[in-house]
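Tokens as discussed.
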């Protein structure tokens, strides 16, 4: 059963393509998605910072543009970082926060993610907060404990100040990202329901009803429909398949039946 929440499909291009190649992909993708669909689904791309100005004109009015990360700091001596205000100035409307690749390769903690969510909220940008367990956690049956602590450490003290325009949660089991392994629809829905229950307890029933919880982890054109058909799955965060115009379009199409 599809929920009342408007589906949201986001692509994450990671560190792929040069700006001009990216522009060509967007130029193919946008017209395919555009025809009638944009009214019933929200979609967007989390781009490398270097692509924001090149792709703005392609996406504007049709798809959302976002960053893959933002600084926990406001501004200043933080070489290499990009602030939430800089993202906003580039016409981004969202940013990923706490992607597992940032947690693994850049030692990002959930507490730091909370600060990033504050910075995004202050700029009126939507934070897409990523949580998920490793294969080891899943095999040990530890996944709910890990995910609950990721939620608590980043959102526990601030969820009351956020609404469903400012916060999306993405469940991305680490063992399914870029591996070709996907959580079954039952596994995904079980975790999504658990996350929604956590939101009921800490943010209230209204936010829990409205907040969109995305699934990410090897989503492709063939498995999207089953995952997106789950009652608590409100959309997808798509890595590899979002670089292919046809595949990403098919995933967006799957979300509207
Ligand atoms: C991701 O990067 O968030 C992701 C889910 O990647 P993939 O779809 O390639 O597994």
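Sequence:
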């Amino acid at each position: 059963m599809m929920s009342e929440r408007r589906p949201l499909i986001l692509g994450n291009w990671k560190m792929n393509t040069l700006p001009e190649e990216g522009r060509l992909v967007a130029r193919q993708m946008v017209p395919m998605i555009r025809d009638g669909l944009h009214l019933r689904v929200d979609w967007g791309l989390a781009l490398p910072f270097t692509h924001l100005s090149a792709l703005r004109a392609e996406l504007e009015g049709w798809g959302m543009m976002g960053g893959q990360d933002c600084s926990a700091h406001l501004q200043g001596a933080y070489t290499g970082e990009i602030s939430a205000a800089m993202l906003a100035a580039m016409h981004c409307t969202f940013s990923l926060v706490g992607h597992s690749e940032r947690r693994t390769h850049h030692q990002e903690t959930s507490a730091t993610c909370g600060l990033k969510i504050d910075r995004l909220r202050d700029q009126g940008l939507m934070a897409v907060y990523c949580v998920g367990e490793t294969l080891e956690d899943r095999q040990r049956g530890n996944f709910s404990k890990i995910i609950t602590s990721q939620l608590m450490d980043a959102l526990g003290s601030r969820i009351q100040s956020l609404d469903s325009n400012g916060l999306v949660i993405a469940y991305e089991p680490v063992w399914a990202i870029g591996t070709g392994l996907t959580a079954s629809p039952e596994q995904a829905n079980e975790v999504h329901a658990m996350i929604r229950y956590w939101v009921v307890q800490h943010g209230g029933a209204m936010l829990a009803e409205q907040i969109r919880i995305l699934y990410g982890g090897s989503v492709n054109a063939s498995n999207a429909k089953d995952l997106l058909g789950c009652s608590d799955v409100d959309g997808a965060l798509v890595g590899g398949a979002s670089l292919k115009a046809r595949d990403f379009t098919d995933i967006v199409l799957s979300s509207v039946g």
